[in-house]
Amino acid sequence: MLDQAANPSSPPGFDAGSWVCPLPLRDSPTIVMAHGGGGAMSGELIEHLFLPAFGAAADAALGDAAVIEVGGVRLAFSTDSFVVKPLTFPGGTIGELAVNGTINDLAMMGARPLVLSTAFILEEGTELAEIARVAQSLGAAAAAAEVKLVTGDTKVVDAGHGDGIFVNTAGIGLVPEGVDIGPHRARPGDVVVISGDIGVHGIAVMSCREGLEFGTTVRSDTAPLNGLVADMLATGADVHVLRDPTRGGVAASLNEIAAQANVGVRLDERALPIPDSVRDACGLLGLDPLYVANEGKLVAFLAPQDADRALEAMRAHPLGARAQAIGVCVEDHPGMVVARTALGGTRVVDLPAGEQLPRIC
């Protein structure tokens, strides 16, 4: 354990003894990009630093959104921050991401999004035309998703101490009566479904950021998923778990669910919907599509008797036209995700330490 004598640079009143060993820094005494990647290092930072620091005030459920009951009404609440670089990319802007990302976190609880807050951190010297372009795309995305922007904040930092525009959004949604969605409901036998092509957003941003060309323009899949979720629930299908596989991709989301539910997940790689453009780009860059971020897809764990009708409803929706069953939830290897390869072998799909593509959302 660290103490003040061993670490004299610690600020007065800092109680390093409250940290949980081992320290979450993986031999690094400072924050690194991987701490923000949604993988193992993000989890360690939360578990071993933030939660002990928060103490009794913390709710350790650790979801992307929380369901709270107020006056007999169940509300979902979520907040998210967006630092994507560049601010504009094929298929979207940081403004659209900021709206769709928070809406999707609410939708993954089965909630109908109602209102959002918006907060902008602007770097001195950023062109007003750039800010206007982002703000307009944010407003258009909110209108398209039928949510209201009801409050917000604006701050400015010195030139060189930001990156143009950072955006935070928080949202509140209404959870319908009888809807109970979360990792605690995952069961062996559940069918694992993805709503469409994976890896598109990450490759779209990377191609724009690095000036790469893959023979065709890969466009981000950023989109609000609340309508798709509503159509799934309207079928009466027993939806156990929903998750939007953003940072860390499908691999990170499935590992988190498997660990929280103490179940195993077995994927069929041949069933994964990976566009040729994404597969080719990942091959060139040495990336695994399972770990590449998405911004308009969801992973669902469905009761086996209801999987077919849920899939039918998904495929009837524009954002679920390429929905596909990609695996099953199993009793074996609890907390672990494995994939059956095209050659008939099996490989472990680990939780990534960080993120293959930083600053992707």
From TrEMBL:
| Ranges of residues in domain PurM-like C-terminal | 187-333
Question: Which species is this record about?
Answer: Nocardia jiangxiensis
Q: Name one Pfam family in it.
A: AIRS
Domain of life, per lineage? Bacteria
InterPro entries listed in its UniProt record: HypE (IPR011854), PurM-like_C_dom (IPR010918), PurM-like_C_sf (IPR036676), PurM-like_N (IPR016188), PurM-like_N_sf (IPR036921)
The entry assigns this protein to a family as follows: Belongs to the HypE family.
Q: Which residues form the signal peptide?
A: none
Name of the protein this chain belongs to: Hydrogenase expression/formation protein HypE
* Start and end residues of each PurM-like N-terminal domain: 64-175
